[in-house]
Write a structure and sequence with these properties.
Blueprint (H helix, E strand, L loop, with lengths): L3 H17 L5 H22 L18 E7 L4 H13 L5 E5 L4 H15 L5 H12 L2 E5 L7 H13 L7 E5 L8 H13 L3 E8 L12 H4 L7 E8 L2 E8 L2 H6 L2 E3 L6 E3 L1
Parallel strand pairs: 1-5, 1-6, 2-3, 2-4, 4-5
Antiparallel strand pairs: 6-7, 7-8, 8-9
């Protein structure tokens, strides 16, 4: 076996040979690859227009906060939720995606398609590596609507956290029914995310020919508006889908100016 000094001498000979041919040392090659990988990750984060909903490198919602994406069926609620989730995943944070409408494989396909559309102009190998690197930050959980309750979610979440399997910083809830009895279970959900210092986003389905409530907000949000810090609504206008602020403070409501591209279902600036 080679002694330590012999190994060191061989390493120096190899690096000397690389330099002699104008090539960087092996460590530098690895560092360049890692740097390029991190630049891709950062670039995708910076290019995401959803960053305009919050501050750079910060969550859009505070800990314990609720956000809502409202739209009628088929307009793009799930696409927005997946982009919100990807923005968080790219910052190395854990996201629990709870679906009450789609199976795991369909939700997973949503993520894969949206991610590769966001990264289609980059090197395919690096894109695939980045995709694999963010998957362990995401956990998909499914329920049937009639079988879902906050205590059941809390029980399954506790199992994951107590066994150090998965601890989310953000929860996505797609398909939660916002009916007349929604305030009590949402209040319980609020206590859950506040307890664990998380935040949560919900899809809310609206209807085409429905008038807004007395406060000007969609009826489905009006009865639970006090529980939400931010709400955005997708509104089709001609061939475009506008992203409008419904709740979030004066500055947020004045400055939000985004569109959802119907051909790609990606968010873009105006």
């Amino acid at each position: 076996m080679l002694k330590t000094d012999q190994k060191k001498a061989i390493r120096l000979d190899i690096e000397s040979g690389l330099k002699g041919r104008g090539l960087p040392p092996h460590d530098n090659i690895i560092n360049l690859k890692e740097r390029s990988f991190m630049m891709l990750k950062k670039d995708l984060t910076l290019r995401n227009p959803l960053r305009l909903l919050g501050k750079e490198n910060q969550d859009i919602l505070p800990k314990g906060g609720f956000g809502a994406v409202l739209a009628r069926a088929g307009v793009g609620k799930t696409a927005i939720m997946v982009q919100l989730s990807l923005e968080t995943l790219l910052r190395g944070k854990n996201v629990l995606h709870v679906s009450l409408s789609d199976p795991v494989n369909k939700v997973s396909l949503w993520y894969k398609e949206v991610f590769h559309k966001l990264a289609d102009q980059y090197n395919a190998q690096q894109v695939n590596q980045l995709w694999e690197s963010i998957l362990h930050h995401r956990f998909i959980m499914t329920f049937k609507v009639e079988g879902f309750s906050v205590p059941k979610l809390n029980e399954r979440l506790a199992d994951l956290m107590e066994q150090n399997i998965f601890t989310p910083q953000m929860i996505i809830v797609d398909g939660f029914p916002f009916d007349e009895s929604v305030h009590q279970p949402l209040s319980e959900f609020k206590e859950l995310v506040e307890k664990h210092q998380m935040h949560a986003w919900f899809t809310i389905r609206t209807h085409r020919h429905e008038d807004p409530g007395p406060d000007g907000k969609p009826l489905q949000l009006g009865q639970v508006s006090d529980l939400f810090e931010i709400a955005i609504q997708l509104s089709p206008e001609g061939k475009e889908i506008h992203v409008k602020a419904v709740k979030g403070g004066e500055s947020f409501m004045e400055n939000l100016d985004l569109r959802l591209d119907p051909s790609t279902m990606l968010i873009k600036k105006n």
